[in-house]
């Protein structure tokens, strides 16, 4: 099985000029070993998010949030859709979160000065599950609180059309640092292709995350990701889409949040019309009346140039004419 090892998962930009690390065929399963968002800096609670101590923070923007790639997918051409199927994610034996001065919405808090005047790092232990791996294991938040590990890929995408965009705050219709918890095992991610081979990148796995990633970091971890690709010819979506076993989700990135929500919903309507033979009238009315229509706010943290990430979701049971 083809693999990108962790010591090669160290790019910090989506760049169409990069030479591919792998060439793969559609349907071929590959493995990518990812580093965590700090390139391994956070190992214990004594490792604090002080910029001067962190590798890559002497650059602007920081060389943080490493990604692996690009992967060249055979037959992919401009105007196609790249379908990324996440087969499995096995996370490391720990994850971390780091807060402190000027980090997140409470990084300047006067109400809780302990959040804005000192740095705190929390390290979470991962316990293996019934499979003998962390894929179905448990995250120990502290001695009293725990929950199932729910891993997902935080940063993935194809090379943008013309620009070179950083992995730490780059986002767009091509993907980027989106922190969408639905980029998870068993789901498909649909991305527009701009270059021959698509030039796919992946990194920044989280062991778990709450909606909005409020502090700006979640349960950051290293991982082994297995995935495969398919190419749909001449069908590029306007922005990322996610196909789950029971639902479909249209994604949009924007500021303010209401623009991200409105655009994600409009693009879902377009998807319903084009792929599922809804009339525009029915699709428009469906998203306003269906009790199972949902808006997901995946990422809404005020960091650098990051915009907000919203998803408009509808269950497949309302799509009788799937194609």
Please give a structural write-up:
The chain has 323 residues and is mainly beta. It has a single domain (3-318), classed as Jelly Rolls (Sandwich), CATH 2.60.120.580. It contains three helices and 21 strands. The strands form four sheets. It has a nine-stranded mixed sheet with strand order 1-4-17-6-15-18-19-21-20. Strand 9 (138-140) and strand 10 form a beta hairpin. Helix 2 crosses helix 3 (280-289). The radius of gyration is 19 Å and the shape is globular. The two termini are 32 Å apart. The model has no long low-confidence stretch (mean pLDDT 96).
How large a portion of the residues is in β-strands, by DSSP E? 25-35%
Number of domains: 1
Shape: globular
Helix content: 10-25%
Q: Which CATH C-level class is it?
A: Mainly Beta
Largest sheet data: 9 strands, mixed
Number of helices: 3
Structural class: mainly beta
Which ranges are low-confidence, i.e. pLDDT below 50, for 5 or more consecutive residues? Answer: none
In total, the number of strands is 21
Q: Strand arrangement, largest sheet? A: 1-4-17-6-15-18-19-21-20
CATH superfamily: Acetamidase/Formamidase-like domains
Helices and strands, in N-to-C order?
EEEEEEEHEEEEEEEEEEEEHHEE
Span between N and C termini? 32 Å
Q: Let me know the average pLDDT.
A: 96
Q: What's the Cα radius of gyration? A: 19 Å
Second CATH tier, the architecture? Sandwich
What name is given to the CATH topology?
Answer: Jelly Rolls
């Amino acid at each position: 099985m083809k693999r990108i090892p962790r010591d090669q998962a160290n790019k910090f930009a989506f760049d169409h000029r990069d030479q591919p690390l792998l060439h793969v065929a559609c349907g071929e399963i590959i493995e990518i070993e990812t580093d965590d968002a700090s390139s391994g800096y956070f190992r214990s609670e004594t490792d604090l998010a002080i910029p001067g101590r962190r590798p890559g923070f002497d650059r602007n923007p920081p060389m943080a949030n490493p990604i692996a790639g690009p992967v060249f997918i055979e037959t992919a051409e401009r105007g196609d859709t790249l379908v990324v199927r996440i087969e499995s994610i096995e996370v490391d034996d720990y994850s971390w979160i780091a807060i402190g001065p000027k980090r997140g919405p409470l990084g300047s808090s006067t109400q809780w000065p302990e959040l804005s005047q000192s740095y705190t790092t929390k390290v979470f232990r991962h316990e293996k599950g019934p499979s003998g791996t962390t894929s179905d294991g448990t995250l120990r938040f502290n001695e009293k609180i725990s929950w199932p590990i729910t891993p997902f890929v935080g940063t993935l995408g194809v090379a943008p059309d013309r620009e070179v965009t950083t992995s730490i705050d780059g986002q767009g219709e091509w993907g980027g640092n989106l922190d969408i918890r639905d980029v998870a095992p068993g789901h498909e991610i649909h991305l527009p292709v701009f270059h021959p081979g698509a030039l796919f990148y992946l990194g920044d796995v989280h062991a778990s995350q709450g909606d909005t990633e409020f502090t700006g970091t979640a349960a950051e971890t290293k991982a082994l990701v297995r995935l495969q690709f398919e190419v749909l010819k001449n069908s590029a979506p306007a922005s990322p889409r996610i196909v789950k076993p029971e639902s479909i989700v249209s994604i949009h990135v924007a500021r303010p949040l209401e623009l991200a929500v409105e655009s994600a919903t409009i693009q879902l309507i377009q998807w319903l019309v084009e792929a599922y033979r809804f009339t525009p009238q029915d699709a428009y009315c469906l998203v306003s009346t269906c009790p199972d229509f949902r808006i997901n706010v995946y990422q809404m943290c005020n960091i650098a140039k990051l915009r907000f990430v919203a998803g408009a979701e509808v269950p497949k049971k309302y799509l009788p004419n799937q194609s």
